[in-house]
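Run log, item B.
One chain of 302 residues. Sequence copied directly from the ordering sheet:
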Amino acid sequence: MRVLVTGAGGTLGQALAPALALEGHEPVLLDVRTLETPYRFVEGDVRQLQDVRRAMQGVDLVVHGAALHGIHLRDHTSQEFHELNVTGTFNTWEAAAEAGVRGLVFCSTMGVYGESRLPSGEDEVVALREDLPLLPTDIYALTKTVGEEMCRYYGRRHGIGSIALRYGMFVPETFFRYGIRLLYGGVDTADVVGSVLAAIDALATRRVKWGAFNVQSVVPFTEEDGAGLLSDPLAVIDRYRPGASELLRQRGVERLEPIREYYPMGSIQHRLGFRPSRNFDQWLKKLESQPEALADKPSPWP
């Protein structure tokens, strides 16, 4: 199938294009910047409908990744977020509906939960399941919430299936910060790519018409771990992974900041048949084999 990837110059787009080709798809890459790529490339701006229409020709499925993200909140205005994330999504959907595509994968964020991330008690952690209310607290999360609602609208209006993937953090990090981040809502880029491929398959086969799914590292925690995750996360981790705390201390981790939330991954596994595999356990094994890997500060994340 011909798959259009908007915002193809980003972290996800660069990793996704070769994975699509490996799966037998034909990637079509759209970005506002010129990309050096062996795949079909269209230079254009999702804020311009004619650019998206041009890229959408002959497309079967869309992965809409073009957006400003949370890291841009400090240096971009609310208007800029609206223009790219809302107008750009509207233009992508309009062009997709005109082209009669089979489905669209919408790149969303865990930030859409907003105030639902607040615990109801001082000794509780929050299990952020997909059925919680979306209560965004910043303009980035608001624009992604609007984007998810657009997906529902175009499904009702045009019968086009869509899947929103609520990603955890996957911007490039150092080895040690990346590993600890997996406990705090992080996810490996390869697992993000895997979730997109699973969503494409579900839409292409029409197994799923609409769904929104967390895409984060798998952790073993439960609500019963709340007090421990807030007071001494290392002790909780050691109950599930004996010896982990000693290994981390040997590498300079004196403590971890409280873990206040986690993301159950049962829904995406049940409905899309996908489960992230590059989790904290795997990182610990890599850490054991890299004696030179040391934390740059006693509490390396966040």
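Observations after the first pass:
- Strands lie at 2-6, 26-31, 40-43, 61-64, 103-109, 126-127, 161-167, 210-215, 261-262.
- The chain has one domain: 2-174+187-219+261-278.
Flagged for discussion on Thursday.
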